[in-house]
Design a protein that fits this description.
It comes from Tenacibaculum gallaicum. Pfam families: MoaF_like. This is MoaF-like domain-containing protein. InterPro entries: Calycin, MoaF-like. The chain is built from two helices and nine strands; from the N terminus they run ααβββββββββ. About 20% of the residues lie in helices and about 45% in strands. The chain has a nine-stranded antiparallel beta sheet, covered by helices on one side. The chain has one domain (about 1-25, about 40-135): Lipocalin (Beta Barrel). It has helices spanning about 1-25, 30-35; strands spanning about 45-50, 55-60, 65-70, 80, 85-90, 90-100, 105-110, 115-120, 125-135. The model has no long low-confidence stretch (mean pLDDT about 85). It is of the alpha+beta class and about 140 residues long. It is globular.
Length: about 140
Amino acid sequence: MKKVIFIIMILTTIISCKNQNESKDELTEMEKGRPKETVSLSGKSFEYNYGDYVYEVNFKSETTLHWKCVKGNEKGREADETYSKQKLNNYTLFISWVEEDGLGVSQVINLKNNTVNTFLKIGKEIIPIAGTIHELQKLDE
């Protein structure tokens, strides 16, 4: 278990260092003039598109999310999860949770580039997958 956590930490560090090196000092004029904002996912819904699999994820609070598979082998499957997050920069977050069946999910979400890098931990295997992410518009009630 310690090895898996160590591997996930190493992978996350590599990705965040790569993203920071690519975007270091690339602030737009608008970003330079405004205070740094904390990225909040709470109350927002996103579509995660991994090609053959598509999920809708609703961040109900700063610690609870609801996901639903809308395309792929798991279509119709859904659950609420308790997640933890860490801000990597103004538009990139690392989030992680463990599902009821033991599946570990760790994600680096980049809201500037609309990308999501996910690592699934199944038993002793780690499966990296990359996809796109976009915010879903709220429907007027």
